[in-house]
Structure formats: structure tokens, C-alpha cells
Design a protein that fits this description.
Layout (H helix, E strand, L loop, with lengths): L1 E6 L6 H14 L4 E5 L13 H7 L4 E5 L4 E5 L9 H6 L7 E5 L8 E5 L19 E6 L13 E3 L3 H10 L8 H4 L1
Parallel strand pairs: 1-5, 1-6, 2-5, 6-7, 7-8
Antiparallel strand pairs: 3-4
Length: 181
């Protein structure tokens, strides 16, 4: 599998870009998985459903499966700092690509996703000048980067170009848990 992270601050456009890159990769016959880092409490279950009732009863893990879908819910007894490599190990190894959203401090190769700061918003310093793992930038203002760079720069709305670049350089994104972990 090949792995690339999309890193940046909240509101930069990571989700939208990942959402647009997925079908572009699929057009080339690629199987794509996603690992998403959520900063808030989230739930995929609904009160009253059997799986919710099992979790409420104290189950550590609940796996729900049908002939079309599988979902695993795991409850942490204490807040846990999640390791992206442990999460990648949970995925099927036979996918072509894993797009990781978030985990900006990880050791994975990353595309920095940047959006201009609007008036009244807190400043968001660029990550690429201090992170050698950033291998490209996607931004809404390619002509106004905060620091010079030799990295490839894509417009935030140009998912086809991002996907093409990933495919053209796919060998560099091969995931090896021993060297990335």
C-alpha cells in the first residue's frame, strides 16, 4: 500500500481535498482507504440500535458486519493518544492507497493543505519550512506562499493534478511499517 497524509490546520480544506482525490484515484482503478483523525468526541452509532446497546452495556469492542459493510467500534477506558501506524495496521494491506487526514506531526509523507487566513482568524504558520516530510503543498493561493519552496504546489481545487502527481510518483509513497513507524 501507498500512504500519503494531508496535513494542515482545521478549516484549511483537508476533508474537501481528500474527498475530491478519492474519485480521481478510483478513475485509475485504485482501491483507496482513509484514516481520519477526529479531534472531538464522535460517534457512528445511534441510541437504541443493538450495537449502541452493547456498547452501553460495557463492551470494549463491537464489530457490526453485513454483506456490504463492516464497522468496528472500540471504547477507550482512558483518553488515548492514537498512533497513525497502529491505525494503518488495522487496514487491509491490499489497498492501493491510504489517504490519511490529519496527524500533521506523524512521520508519514505529507501534502500540506493551506488556506489563507481570514480577518479575525488566528494565524496559522506554514508547516513546510520546518517539516522535511512535507513533499507538496495544496493551497487556495499558490502565488502567495509564506516562504519560498521548491516543493510542488497545487491549487486546492485541483484534485486531478494532486492525484496525477501521486500516481506518477507512487513508488516514493510505498508504506513500510519498519521505516515509517
Amino acid at each position: 500500500m501507498k500512504v500519503i497524509a494531508f496535513a494542515g490546520y482545521s478549516g484549511a480544506g483537508k476533508t474537501t481535498l481528500v474527498e475530491r482525490v478519492i474519485p480521481e484515484l478510483r478513475r485509475y482503478g485504485q482501491r483507496v482507504s482513509v484514516v481520519k483523525h477526529a479531534h472531538h468526541r464522535f460517534d457512528i452509532d445511534h441510541p437504541g440500535k443493538d450495537s449502541w446497546r452493547h456498547r452501553e452495556a460495557g463492551a470494549f469492542e463491537v464489530l457490526v458486519a453485513s454483506d456490504r459493510r463492516l464497522a468496528l467500534m472500540r471504547e477507550f477506558e482512558q483518553p488515548a493518544e492514537l498512533d497513525v501506524h497502529a491505525l494503518l495496521a488495522e487496514l487491509r494491506a491490499d489497498v492501493d492507497w491510504v489517504l490519511v487526514e490529519g496527524f500533521k506531526l506523524s512521520s508519514l509523507p505529507k501534502i500540506e493543505v493551506m488556506r489563507r487566513v481570514e480577518p479575525g482568524q488566528a494565524p496559522r504558520p506554514a508547516l513546510y519550512p520546518g517539516d522535511a516530510r512535507i513533499c507538496a503543498i495544496a493551497t487556495d493561493r499558490p502565488d502567495h506562499l509564506p516562504a519560498p519552496t521548491d516543493l510542488p504546489v497545487f491549487h486546492l481545487d485541483d484534485a486531478p493534478a494532486v492525484a496525477h502527481w501521486l500516481l506518477a510518483g507512487s513508488g516514493r509513497f510505498h508504506y513500510n511499517p519498519e521505516s515509517h513507524g
